[in-house]
Amino acid sequence: MPKLIIDKQSLTPIYKQLVDQLELSIINKDIKKNQKLPSINKICLEHKISRDSVLLAYGMLKKKGIINAIAGKGYYVKTNAINYEKRYFLLFDELNSFKEDIYNSFIEPLNGKAIVEIYFHHFNLEIFKKLVNDANGNYTKYIIMPSNLKGIEEVISKLPATDVYILDQTRKSLSCYPTIYQNFKDAVYNGLYSVLNKLTRYSRIIFVFSNKKEPLGMVDGFTQFCLDHGFHHELIYKYEDHYLEKGSVFITPDDNDLVSILEASKKRELTIGKDVGIISYNDTPLKKVVANGITTISTDFKEMGTHLANMVWNQQHQKIENPSRIILRKSL
C-alpha cells in the first residue's frame, strides 16, 4: 500500500487528507479490491494523529460504499469502481438576472461532470451560517458569494480551506482564498473617467446609494473621481424627486431608483441624456432599449461564470479580477 502523507500544517483537515489519498490510491488500483487497510491504531501511531481523525476518514469511506468493516478483522476495500462524484456548493446572495448569467455560464462548461447545488443567503447572516454549516463535509467544493455581510469569516474558516472559492465581492480578511472578483472602486472611477467629456456638460453628479446590499467600494470610487476632477457631487441614501434638477447626472446601483428617476423625468418633461443624465450599474438587455438606452457600468457576468468553472474544475488557486467597463448609451 502507498505511504500516506499527512501535512499537519495544511489547512485541510487531517481526516480529509486521509480520505483523498485513500480514494486516489483505490482509484489508481494501488490498493486492490478486498485488500485490508491499515488498522486505526497503526495509522495513529505512524503519523501521530488522533483516532478520531482516522475513524472519521474510514467512516466517510464506508458511507460512500468504498470500504466495509468486518467485525474483529478490520477494514477492507469493497470496490475499485469509485464514482468520484464532484459536488459543488454554490452560495449566492440573491437571485437576479446577473446571478442567472453567472450560474448558467458556470454550469455550461462543466457539461454535467459535476453536481451543482445553489442556495441563497439573502444578506442574512443567520441564514448564511446555517447553509454553510449544513453543507460542511457534503461537497467537494464550496463557492461562496459573501457580498457585504459582516462576521462571515469564522463561518467560512470551518470549511476545508483548499476547497473554498470566493465570488464577486472579496475583502482583506478573505484574501487567503482563491477568488474571482470585481474591483468596484476602480470600476466606478475608471468608468466615470472614460466619459469625462460627457460629464463636464452637467452641473453636478449625484450618487444614489440607497441599497445597503451594494459594495462600499462604489462610493469610494465615486468620491475620489469627483474630488480629483473638481465635480460638484452629492451622495444620497434615498432618492426623492426634489433632487431631480436639470443639469444633474445620477448614478444608480439600484434599479428601483433608476425607475423612479425615469418616471419623474417624464412627468417633468425633462429629456434623459440632455436635461438629466443617468448612469446605471450592471447591464441588462432591457437597459439597451429603455429611454433610448441607459448608460451602464458593468462587468461581464458570463465571463465571470466561465472563469469560475475553469478555476474550480482545474483546482486552480488564483485571484482574478473580472474587468468592468462603461457601456455608453443615450442616457448620458
Give a structural overview.
The protein has 332 residues and is of the alpha/beta class. The protein folds into 3 domains: 14-77, Winged helix-like DNA-binding domain superfamily/Winged helix DNA-binding domain (Arc Repressor Mutant, subunit A); 87-182 and 301-323, Response regulator (Rossmann fold); 184-299, Response regulator (Rossmann fold, 3-Layer(aba) Sandwich), CATH 3.40.50. Helices cover 36% and strands 19% of the residues. The strands form 3 sheets. Strands 4-3-5-6-7-13 form a 6-stranded parallel beta sheet, sandwiched between helices. α1 packs across α3 (51-63). The model has no long low-confidence stretch (mean pLDDT 92).
What is the gist of this entry?
The chain is an alpha/beta fold.
Give the overall form: elongated
Beta-strand level of the residues, as a percent range?
Answer: 15-25%
Computed CA radius of gyration, to the nearest angstrom: 26 Å
CATH class of the largest domain: Alpha Beta
Give the SSE order as H and E letters: HHHEEEHEHEHEEHHEHEEHEEHEE
Give the count of structural domains: 3
* Uncertain residue ranges: none
Question: What is the secondary structure topology, with strand pairs?
Answer:
Blueprint: H1 14-27, H2 40-47, H3 51-63, E1 67-70, E2 74-77, E3 87-92, H4 97-110, E4 115-120, H5 125-135, E5 141-144, H6 153-157, E6 164-168, E7 179-181, H7 184-194, H8 196-199, E8 204-208, H9 217-229, E9 233-236, E10 248-252, H10 255-267, E11 276-281, E12 295-299, H11 301-313, E13 319-321, E14 324-327
Parallel strand pairs: 3-4, 3-5, 5-6, 6-7, 7-13, 8-9, 8-10, 10-11, 11-12
Antiparallel strand pairs: 1-2, 12-14
Helix pairs in contact: 1-3, 4-11, 7-9
